[in-house]
Amino acid sequence: MMPTQLKKMGDSHQEATEKEVERILGYLKKYYQDDPTSPILYYEFVIDPNSFSRTVENIFHTSFLIRDGLARMHLDSDRLPCIAPVEEGEVEAGGSSIRKQCIVSISPKLWKEIKEAYDIRNPLIQPSNMQPE
């Protein structure tokens, strides 16, 4: 009986992760559509200035967008990491030939430093109990 319960629990966590990834993709697309010529700075997108744990969750969920080819990262002219959604026609079904990934590490100290350096006062990704406008 226990393995069945664990499998069901695992499935529900996977489904919750998928829903959160889709929700975050919605925010990314909305901000990009609002101003497609202005790059979305990665740290401004994922940092929640009110919660280190939500920031870690945002980084985690955003990583699936990169992995699955739904978003891409690049460096702007100041060599700061930026994120943008991948257009429908650009998404390769299961193709990862040109996709690159990296590891992002963050500590509470670094989180505070980034918040101050980027002057982040409000989260771009609202907590999951709030929806995009």
Secondary structure elements and pairings:
Layout: H1 2-34, E1 40-41, H2 42-46, H3 52-67, E2 71-75, E3 81-85, H4 108-118
Antiparallel strand pairs: 1-3, 2-3
Domain Non-structural maintenance of chromosome element 4 C-terminal: 39-125
Subunit structure: Component of the SMC5-SMC6 complex.
Subcellular location: Chromosome, Telomere; Nucleus
Description:
- Helix content is 49%, strand content 9%.
- The chain is mainly α and 133 residues long.
- α1 (2-34) crosses α3.
- The mean pLDDT is 84.
Structural class per helix/strand content?
A: mainly alpha
**From the structure provided, what is the oligomeric state, counting identical versus distinct chains?**
single chain
User: How far do the termini sit from each other?
Assistant: 44 Å
What is the average of the pLDDT values?
84
Q: Biggest β-sheet, characterized?
A: 3 strands, antiparallel
User: What string, H for helix and E for strand, traces the elements in order?
Assistant: HEHHEEH
Categorize the overall geometry. Answer: globular
Poorly predicted sequence stretches spanning 5 or more consecutive residues: none
Helix count? Answer: 4
Count all strands and give the number.
3
